[in-house]
Amino acid sequence: MRLLPAPTPLRVCEYRCANAPTRELMVLLPGIGDVAEDYQSHGFVDAVLRSKAPADLVAVDMHVGYYARRTVLERLRQDVIAPAREAGYEKIWLVGISLGGLGASLYAAEHAADLEGLVLLAPFLGDPRIVGEIAGAGGLDAWQPGEPTEDDYPRRLWQWAKRYSKGSEKLPALFLGYGEGDRFAPANRLLAQALPVECVLTVPGGHDWRTWQQLWHAFLGARNRTLAPGVP
């Protein structure tokens, strides 16, 4: 554990709309091996700030050490979400890539009322054993999760996804995007079966930033059409 430090509070990078005050915040969670600044260097931040419906953003340096220590939800809520609410943000989105998608999903499973929605790009959704278990059962609708232990986060996550798919778990919006050749595509397809088709985006590509950039721009295009219709 000494090799996986998880300092508190979380280190964050904040990006504000210069000319368009907003009550909407996007919280960006990186994948394994990535850092908070990668969202800016790969154009995610500028794409939002220059869009027809800009929002403020916070990129969070939530790396694997927080997951190993099981402090992801606590730190995210205390260091990011609660202060954002106190600052007056009315809509908060969690955006997670790969391991960050796992963190975002776990947070939604525990604190859905805090969020406007989720954007999951190629999320890691547990090891192949549980994915195979769900697929072998015939999909999420037929799968019986049993009673997960407190530390069985992947099973708890899929249990939440099953409730969400049946409409018994409320979250205003959930968007899933992944590359068709991504190594996590089998798990992502299982989750996609539980979502409306308009909430799932796929493109050719693998588990890489080029693919995620395409998905991000596709999501923002759909968002802009909803929030700023008719704006040239």
Going by CATH, the architecture would be 3-Layer(aba) Sandwich
- Remind me, CATH topology? Rossmann fold
Oligomer: single chain
Q: Which structural category do the helix and sheet elements fall into?
A: alpha/beta
How many individual helices?
9
Give the rounded overall mean pLDDT.
Answer: 91
Strand tally is 7
Query: Superfamily at the CATH H level?
Result: Alpha/Beta hydrolase fold, catalytic domain
Strand order of the largest sheet: 1-3-2-4-5-6-7
Q: What is the general shape?
A: globular
Order of helices and strands: EEHHEHHEHEHHEHEH
Any low-confidence stretches, pLDDT <50, length ≥5? Answer: none
Instruction: Look at the structure and give the CATH class.
Output: Alpha Beta
Number of domains: 1
Helix content: 25-40%
**End-to-end gap:** 52 Å
Radius of gyration, in angstroms, nearest whole number:
17 Å
Strand content: 15-25%
Largest sheet: 7 strands, mixed
Structure description:
The chain has 232 residues and is of the alpha/beta class. The protein has one domain (12-227): Alpha/Beta hydrolase fold, catalytic domain (Rossmann fold), CATH 3.40.50.1820. It contains nine helices and seven strands; from the N terminus they run E-E-H-H-E-H-H-E-H-E-H-H-E-H-E-H. The chain has a seven-stranded mixed beta sheet with strand order 1-3-2-4-5-6-7, sandwiched between helices. The chain is globular. The termini are far apart. The mean pLDDT is 91.
Key features of this structure:
single chain; 232 residues; alpha/beta; Rossmann fold; 16% strand; globular
